[in-house]
Amino acid sequence: MIEINNRTKYRVNARLIKRIVNKFLAARGWRKKDVSLAFVGDARMRELNRRYRKKDCPTDVLSFAEEGTNKQELGEIIIDPAQIKRQAPENGNSFPQELIFILVHGLLHLAGYDDRTEKERLEMIKIGEEFIRKLAGRSKK
Asked: Is the CB of residue 78 less than 8 Å from the CB of residue 62?
């Protein structure tokens, strides 16, 4: 099950979000995993980023993998659409493109990938971009 909780003024295409999450889960053989998504504003994201990462600023995405014995629950992804809107032009993306990239990035975190080093960050970007290309039907040859 994919749960989406939008607490912002931004319109979120829930059908598209669910399709992307389902394709990601299917690609990993996790068809029966649950994922929760929350869309929050800058103030809430800043608070969460400060609490969990000790960084006093909003960020685009936070991922919390489920720990413990619940094998069905993969985890939760928290996204700040306002931050995504601000950073999209810097990355040469539209808002929807950046949102998809960030969603996939959050899913990769739930899958166990990390980006604490530059090498890990670049690897996550590569994997995420390849997944998005496949999703769009444009595989690299």
From this structure: yes
